Amino acid sequence: MTNGKTIKIVVLGLLFIGAIFSMPLKTAQAANSLFVDVPDDSKYFQALFYLKNNGAIKGYSDMTFKPNNTITRAEFLKIIMTHAGIKNMLPKVELFKDMPTFTDVKSSDWYRDSINHAYVLGIAKGYSNNTFQPTQAVQLAEGLKMLFLAHNTNVPTINIKESPFLDVRASSWFLPYAKFAWEKNMIFMQNDGKLHGDTNMTRGDAAELIYRLSVIMNKQFAPFDLSSEWPTYSNNLLGLSVKTPFDWQVIPEGTRIVLWLQDKENKQMDYEYISPSSAKIVIRPMALSGDDLKPDLYFEGVKQFVKRVFANDEINFQQITIGENTALYFTIPTKNIYNWYILVKGQPKAFVIYTQIGSGNALKQLETIMNLVIPTIKYTPSTLSVDQQAEIDSLLSKANAAVNVEKGAAEVIRSIGDTTIIETDEIGVGIGPVDYYFSKKVNITIKVERTSNTILGVRGGKNTKF
User: Fold this and answer.
1) How confident is the model at residue 22 (pLDDT cuts 50, 70, 90)?
2) What are the residues whose beta carbons fall under 8 Å from the beta carbon of 269, sequence distance 6 or more?
């Protein structure tokens, strides 16, 4: 039975399929031009570009894809069977010789051949009343099993004694598939530590699952690199760039930036105080001189400082390499604190990175995300003059100071000068529609309630996910 719910599986997403699209695409922009509701900064973009370029999906006649709509059993089977066939991954052995006779699948239905082929290969079965229910939404648990069977994936199915999910027992039929997908970063648990396997998949979810499976199969089943899909945030003032996870906020604060996953379930209002399902990463560049330019002396000074600040806590220190940079990494397990002091190779600079994660059920999962963010932090020399940096800093401060000040938006927008509206929410909040203004000069997005002319929030980069 379906329950009508939909799910967001961290970066998971997919599609429809009435027919198979085979036109080759040369650029990501070309793919995007065919789906007007999937912008190039969408978390589904890479998956959809891949599947379309491989001839596995097609959107609607109005050039939309509707990634947030649920996907039916027939649609999902059509897609995975087509993709697996294109990649020559379908099982080679037929388990059943006779074709099924589902009472709700007619010979004229566009999905009949896909369903019959899947049945013969043991990929999908019908129900005890001799129906297949092709228009029923696909639930996450059954979708994972069908996906892996269709691609002949070697998923361990015996001696699975422990479940990473609070709502999946060790005896459950779908635990092997869910655990395998979770270990390979194909799916994520929800913040409550549960899988919610009865949740209906969206078209975006399906596309992302297929894409991630294809990527890990090409890399000998190494876990999927989530950061490969994340957008890059750059801050000229601070001379750094970093890839930012979807659903995390980017908050520039003068001499540092904060990446914040808000715990909305527990109504967390401020990132300064950690909440069970929240996480934050604070990045601050620091100029070095004198003995601090010598790694051993610099790291020893950091250690002594940390021991004084956390005198009553257990501290674990480790000197590591991140890319071409040397770093001191230390953790304070009792507080879920993880810090890095990264020396930038060839520059008299360091990145001081402070992170903290809530003690909720998704702690280990958030550790995985955090450890993928840190290596993406890069030094990017500023091309701005001192005067230009001072102007941008002043405009940024002015925008932040005007948040929630009634009728204060127009003056900020006028002062910045180069803002353009990149999205409008006509329903809005409070008393009217909401417009999102982006400034390339200051590299921020400003959320404005139009009727009251009030700034509701400021975020770094081109970002409408407030």
Assistant:
1) very low
2) none
Q: Of 228, 229, 240, 224, give the one whose Cα is nearest residue 281.
A: 240
pLDDT in tens, 99-134: 899 999 999 999 999 999 999 999 999 999 999 999
**Residue of 97, 104, 148 lying closest to 119 (CA atoms):** 97
Please answer whether residues 465 and 248 qualify as being in contact, where contact means their C-beta atoms are separated by less than 8 angstroms: no
Do the Cβ atoms of 190 and 206 come closer than 8 Å? no
Tokens 């801050």 found at: 235
Cβ atoms of residues 241 and 232 within 8 Å: yes
Measured CA to CA, the distance from residue 64 to residue 16 in angstroms comes to 10
Spatial CA neighbour of 250 closest among 350, 373, 335, 428 = 373
In the Cβ-directed half-sphere of 384, how many Cα atoms lie within 13 Å?
17
Closest CA to 339 of 382, 291, 307: 307
**Residue 442 pLDDT class (50, 70, 90 cuts):** confident
Task: Tell me the per-residue pLDDT of 407-420, one tens digit each, with 9 for 90 and over.
Answer: 999 999 999 999 99
Beta bridge partners of 329: 318, 340
At residue 458, the pLDDT reads: 86
Query: Could you tell me the pTM of the whole model?
Result: 0.76
How far is C-alpha 393 from the chain's CA centre?
Answer: 29
Q: What are phi and psi of 300, to 5 degrees?
A: -65, -40
Q: Are strands 325-332 and 378-379 parallel, antiparallel or unpaired?
A: unpaired
AA identity, residue 175? L
Q: Are the CB atoms for 208 and 47 separated by under 8 Å?
A: yes
Residue 386: CA count within 13 A, CB half-sphere: 0
Q: State residue 311 phi and psi, 5-degree precision.
A: -60, -30
Looking at the DSSP bridge assignments, the partners of residue 281 are 259, 355
Q: Kindly tell me the burial class for residue 18, based on how many C-beta atoms sit within 10 Å of its own C-beta (0-12, 13-18, 19 or more).
A: middle
User: Hey, what are 151's tokens?
Assistant: 């691609």
Using alpha carbons, list the distances in angstroms from residue 145 to 90, 138, 176, 181, 390. 14, 11, 9, 10, 56
Cα Rg of the chain (Å, integer)? 25
Distance CA 213, CA 51 (A): 12
Tokens, residue 424: 């409008």
Q: Which CATH superfamily is domain 230-379 in?
A: Mog1/PsbP, alpha/beta/alpha sandwich (3.40.1000.10)
